[in-house]
Amino acid sequence: MSYETQGFKLDDSGKRVVVDPVTRIEGHMRVEVNLDSQNVIRNAVSTGTMWRGLEVILKGRDPRDAWAFTERICGVCTGTHALTSVRAVENALGIQIPENANTIRNIMQLTLQAHDHLVHFYHLHALDWVDVVSALKADPKATAELAQGISSWGMSSTGYFRDLQNRLQKFVESGQLGPFMNGYWGNPAYKLPAEANLMAVAHYLQALDFQKEIVKIHTIFGGKNPHPNWLVGGVPCPINVHDTGAVGAINMERLNLVSSIIDQTIEFIDKVYIPDLLAIASFYKDWLYGGGLSSQCVLSYGDIPDKANDYSAANLMLPRGAITGGDLSRIQEVDLADPEQIQEFVDHSWYTYPDGVKGLHPYDGVTNAKFELGPKLKGTKTNIQEIDEGGKYSWIKAPRWRGHAMEVGPLARYIIGYAQNKAEFKEPVEKVLKTLDVPVTALFSTLGRTAARGLEASWAAHKMRYFMDKLMANIKAGDSSTANVEKWDPKSWPATARGVGFTEAPRGALGHWLTIKDGRIDNYQAIVPTTWNGSPRDAQGQIGAFEASLMNTPLAVANQPLEILRTLHSFDPCLACSTHVMAPDGAEMTRVTVR
Amino acid sequence: METFYEVLRRQGITRRSFMKFCSLTATSLGLGSAFTGKIAHALETKPRTPVLWMHGLECTCCSESFIRSAHPLAQDVVLSMLSLDYDDTLMASAGADAQAILEEIQQKYKGNYILAVEGNPPLNEDGMFCITAGKPFVEELKRVASDAKMVIAWGACASYGCVQAAKPNPTQATPIHKVITDKPIVRVPGCPPIAEVMTAVVTYMLTFDRLPELDRTGRPKMFYGQRIHDKCYRRPHFDAGQFVEQWDDEGARKGYCLYKVGCKGPTTYNACSTVRWNEGVSFPIGSGHGCIGCSEDGFWDKGSFYDRLTSIHQFGIESNADQVGGTVAAVAGTAVAVHAGLTALKRSRVDHDKEFPVREGGNGQWGK
Fold this sequence. Notes:
The complex is a heterodimer.
Chain A: E1 2-5, E2 8-11, E3 15-19, E4 29-35, E5 41-48, H1 54-58, H2 66-71, H3 80-93, H4 99-125, H5 140-150, H6 158-173, H7 194-214, H8 216-222, H9 252-284, E6 298-300, E7 303-305, E8 316-318, E9 321-323, E10 342-345, E11 351-352, E12 368-369, E13 378-380, E14 383-386, E15 398-401, H10 410-419, H11 423-436, H12 446-476, E16 496-505, E17 508-517, E18 520-527, H13 529-533, H14 545-550, H15 562-569, H16 575-578
Antiparallel strand pairs in A: 1-2, 3-4, 4-5, 6-9, 7-8, 10-15, 11-12, 13-14, 16-17, 17-18
Chain B: H1 4-10, H2 15-28, H3 36-45, E1 49-55, H4 61-66, H5 74-81, E2 82-87, H6 95-108, E3 114-118, E4 131-132, E5 135-136, H7 137-145, E6 150-154, H8 155-160, E7 185-188, H9 195-208, H10 221-224, H11 235-239, H12 250-253, H13 318-326, H14 331-348
Helix pairs in contact in B: 2-3, 13-14
């Protein structure tokens, strides 16, 4: 069967290749593609393979507790769901938070952006570009010259790289390759010279050691990481810089520690991450596959409110807007409460809607899980060999913005910021394009997505400094307030209320919608970045961003999914986030006897 | 990259203390001092123990916590102390190439690998709420567990079910000991567990070649033997009746006790107030929020995180807390009453799960 959608010609006649599990992501995911006789992908099917039902669990709970439940949607983008949740509750109840609370929340959210992007690049994505085994052939002296030529970062001597190479040699000779076992080493799609590979391996290890420092900012303000603590109405940590008992609060020593970590984070990202990104990209600038929907439809809700309690586009430092049909001259306004804008569909998802219902806005979201497979399935219900994308095939719903499948995430944010002519997004992009000597259309690619994430990590680290300075200035001006407790007591709430909260999670636009009734959660819905990007087809056959991004990509070796992983990873998929939705009636599902 | 011995040396452990440690190990295994040399030789040269780290329904916070470990560094654990042969969050290969590793290790190291489980299997919908390689995760879990030497249950998900098992548990998410019934399991609960507790449990097992001493619910006694309240630095304020009454009030700014705004420290067994988080930087109470009890069974279903423990009736300490909270003046007598209540609490605390398979004596010695 073949048909055209969104400018792609889907053809499932060629050889089917299955990748399950897709590894180096958060959660569980499967992808199937059809290859033509030249090993080019002509059909792509992505399946979310887990469901946890968190919103079912939230029904009837105290809205002030919801942040803790939703935070556990994801431990990788830890905190962003909690922030979205407290914003949704505050929106519903009309709670205004103090300026310091907004600033501290921003610092925490930016900490997450910087940390998450760094860990993604080195530990989830790098092995798609970097051949670890090839590093054994590198000349340590030439590696040192390469490293010193692109950055003033230390730990770049010949001796350092020689020592690392010796360790690596011993490791490989031990025959126990651990996480590098069965990798696609030697695949011709790897393009880096041995020296760049050795440098990247060194930074893989350095980044693993360094990332644990960044999150200490969460620990200072939120008590721990992963999963720091949050509070409806503000932040739980009080500020006390002058008086008795200061050691039990945010005091001068704590503020100095945050400040020092911000400096280290800026340095690591600007001296290691960005130079590595550019060095690697320079060897892959002819491999510009994977653009998918990015040149057509992108969406961002915006985030990082400069002043507290103002969530309008003008006050948000990360851009807000939607682009459809590739028209960068027209940034459309986004309204999360408008039932005409965001709707979810379940034609190819393992849920059913009541008769006659097509798409639903999340305030009215209905979800009844129904696991059924299409008639062309190969295998059985509990042993899927090849899935039938003509039927239902994913635990992820299909959200649409005014009927369009959208891409969200760092690339979407940078495209929108670029189209809005915002210098802080446009200038770094143009610098990268110029350095690599590629046209602006190169942005619409796997590489563009990976580059945008790196630029955003740097942006986030520098913005942490901005908000840290702002916090200090506010404290100096005599304001040490961190929580507004006027509406803490549920007795002060109206009988019913509903609200929406949003953030830009590292992976993209994130929204929570909730309804409160008699002091309890009556309905809770989340649409997360990977719901957008990992969306299955809809009734019109429109494909989602993952599926679109794989189209027309050639595989160098047909039975090695290296290029598939490379492109999927460029989105930083998070499946635990994307695949949990609400059964509004809390329907009891079939009980199975424990075996 | 290095043998276990080389890693120990690099971390500043001398040859002398290494040999002393080998001698202690020999003695504790009942082998006598003659075996000291053999153990030393084994640790200097033996292959790293393969670890297969599998993920069910979870949020990956345990993996994220693990890589935060500062001592030992995660890279040393993963690349030098053990052989992390399968971990779908970090591994280079995918799909059938990844699944082949599970099979290979299971055959090649039958009875000699560690299975580490993050998350849990859902049993509803024939297990298809969590699918790996086209099949229910629970099948893969049972298969890989069948030849494991022992099993680590990471975090609250694998240990108790955690958030997806909170009422009404729509997927029937099930803690792993209910599907793995014939292997020694160490539970390392928490959402997530503390990074250095995770790596300490692993290195203990590799070092002493056995499970740590476990309590009757299967948790290592060394980290889960005491309540957060027992070692909390704000405990003197509890004893003095000095409480945070509301967020950001004067008591909050002075670092008073968070008991009245819902702290679950008095009923939570974990090392947060001693080991602390992220290289000792802080822990929840240290940053102004009460403990939410994330290492306790069913902590999601024990009322709001902001309810004072008084409202959790099963603990039976209602009368005391209000008396304490009332006035600072009434300290002496009331505090005694509270402490009496809390001691009673220890006796009556929830018996997590009587079915939990803990070996005789509580420390499944293995490898013999």
